[in-house]
């Protein structure tokens, strides 16, 4: 009996304590100015009955709880990204800059914000455009060089010079350089197929500062705005030699979105005219990434490259290389690294996996290895970054080919050095050093690292997991 009484007393105390604690939590929340104002407003509603007021105050609590939860989740996400994988970017890492019924622009900017490890590419930014059939992207310019890669679809691009516009057709695989400050517009010239464009932004030549990917739109009025509406009315009247009323009427009339559908006739009217003058205009036209033979190609995949040495590509001054890797389903690229280039990789098709070794990230738990294994699941629309010198590998799923478009910055003198395959840096090591370093007969070392295939190999995806599941 005595024991029972003690137990129930303990229970009672515990109950009291927890009641006190929960009260403490509530009063802590009450101190939050936002929830206080919210509840205050509930009490002030004259038309509310007592019950209405209570419901209203409960809603304040609920809202506050949701907000706290959201904040907590956000923090957790950030922690995970920061600590484990600053090199892989998902859709939530993109900012939506333009979002209309007929198209949108997503931007990945400020690589340095995500991690100091990405400061080598802090001056670069990536934009992704999705434009619906027969839609028009209004004329705009950037204070950065823009290198366009037409991932999919058919486009017309118009580039404005001092006194006229040059137009070009863009096909899948086309690369086009838009010099800094050049006003441009785009058209999806197909009625049904969506147009996908990836655009790398980098500082104008001989400048070096982070780019911000903010567009200067020439057309527009007040909503959406034209860059001109930032000027005072007096200045505009004088500069355009137009009376105030006429100008206001004109700007008020401008209600078009940044991206909008246009008529078939307008699309045809915007088609580039065939030039009979063979020397072309001021701009270098598009250069297709599939023009040159692939640098590597076998049944397991192909790698296409266009770099600064290709004069016709427009990349000659930019120290930039564009590559497209098409990894056959169920296959992988070799483990390799870039000697000089930092790679900004954009997954355009399929899905797969990515692994990279990085000595800069510290393991949270103590571990015998100090090369942090970075890994990530890849999906179309994702971006991953591979700094120079970091060995990495990509694998395609069994279901689909994995297509990756890469912007490789600092590409001059860059080499891709592999750890496995016909040519690899381990086999290339001189015999004496190899035997000293590996403490193994040279032929045996070569046997491990060499194989007949080069660059792309077959890969058994997820075999271990499947066996474990079964
Ligand atoms: C990738 O390669 C396959 C053939 O293996 C081909 O059918 C497909 O069109 C290629 N994709 C791209 C984007 O080049
Ligand atoms: Cu690293």
CATH topology of the domain at 88-220 and 256-269: Jelly Rolls
Radius of gyration: 29 Å
The helix-and-strand class reads alpha+beta
Listed once per kind, the bound small molecules are:
2-acetamido-2-deoxy-beta-D-glucopyranose, copper (II) ion
- Spatial sequence of strands, sheet with the most strands: 1-23-20-25-17-16-15
So how many helices?
Answer: 10
Q: In CATH, what is the homologous superfamily of the domain at 88-220 and 256-269? A: Jelly Rolls
Tally of strands: 27
What distance separates the N and C termini?
55 Å
- pLDDT average, as an integer? 86
Global geometry: globular
Major sheet, described briefly? 7 strands, antiparallel
Question: What is the CATH architecture term of the domain at 88-220 and 256-269?
Answer: Sandwich
In CATH's first tier, which class of the domain at 88-220 and 256-269 applies?
Answer: Mainly Beta
InterPro entries: Cupin_1, RmlC-like_jellyroll, RmlC_Cupin_sf, Seed_Storage-Functional
Organism: Cicer arietinum (Chickpea)
Protein name: Sucrose-binding protein-like
Keywords: Signal
